[in-house]
Design brief:
The protein is α/β, with parallel strands linked by helices and 258 residues long. Helices cover 27% and strands 28% of the residues. The protein has a six-stranded mixed sheet with strand order 5-4-2-6-14-13. A hairpin with a 2-residue loop joins β13 and β14.
Length: 258
């Protein structure tokens, strides 16, 4: 038997149907020696969420009744991660992008820091630009099985999975860079780590924050590509940094309206 996957904290975002399912899977994984942790934190703004109603509990399990933005500002603001991981839900805002955006605004209070729509199409089979500027992309033009772990052989087409979203977004970022100052991509890559539960590490989030800080250090106008992805699916946003006093502007670049 292989060694268990070990964590300090696992943060499950949301206590609804997805979050309560993921928590249940992680509890099963621990009971069978496949995973260990010190704290399993379920974060939901609703005290009566499904996880609370179903009594998801056990040693080290905590339900945090809090808005997600406030929780992550406090949790990620310490800057001292251990072996910690975040379990996202398929149906939620682009939370890690939102945290990077808020952090960048605090870092540069006199500078324009905003979200720009990712206007260029990705070329993937599923590609939709949401009204908030986030582009949702997928290699699947079919309905995927619920809780698919994205194995090497796709269960829908019964053939090898020849795609990888991280590689595709690196190419997407390169294409955007032909038209203006672009950095990244900052990617939070969700991998299935135990009993079908996908997660990404907190160190990825903090490294992404450092990349944004480095990209903005020169003071020129810059877009940073930020994605939360799995092998097959992703949410992509552009974090726009305006120029500082004396910095160079790229306003009017051909891929984003001036």
């Amino acid at each position: 038997m292989s060694d268990p996957v070990a964590f300090r904290d696992i943060v499950v975002v949301g206590g609804g149907c997805y979050g309560s399912f993921y928590a249940g899977q992680l509890l099963r994984a621990r009971s069978r020696g496949a995973a260990t942790w010190e704290r399993l934190l379920l974060v939901d703004h609703d005290r009566g969420c499904r996880a609370a109603a179903e009594g998801v509990e056990g040693p080290g399990v905590e339900l945090r009744v809090e808005e997600w933005d406030r929780f992550f500002d406090d949790y990620l603001g310490t800057g001292s991660p251990g072996p910690d991981a975040i379990v996202p839900s398929p149906l939620m805002p682009h939370l890690m992008f939102d945290w990077l955006l808020r952090t960048a605004r605090r870092r540069w209070p006199g500078r324009t820091v905003t979200q720009r729509p990712a206007e260029v199409a990705s070329g993937m089979p599923y590609d939709r630009l949401h009204t908030d500027g986030t582009r949702y992309v997928s290699f699947a033009d079919w309905l995927c099985p619920v809780h698919c772990v994205e194995p090497a052989t796709c269960p829908v087409i019964a053939a090898p999975r020849t795609w990888e979203m991280s590689d595709a977004l690196a190419e997407f970022t390169e294409r955007l860079g032909r038209h203006g100052a672009v950095s990244g991509p900052v990617l939070f890559v969700c991998r299935h780590r135990a009993y079908g539960v996908g997660m990404f590490d907190v160190v990825e989030v903090l490294a992404g924050n450092e990349l944004v800080a480095s990209a903005g250090a020169a003071g020129v106008e810059m877009d940073v590509v930020v994605g939360t992805v799995s092998s097959c699916h992703g949410a992509v946003s552009l974090l726009h940094l305006g120029p500082t006093a004396g910095g160079r502007s790229i306003a009017g670049s051909p891929y984003i309206p001036a």
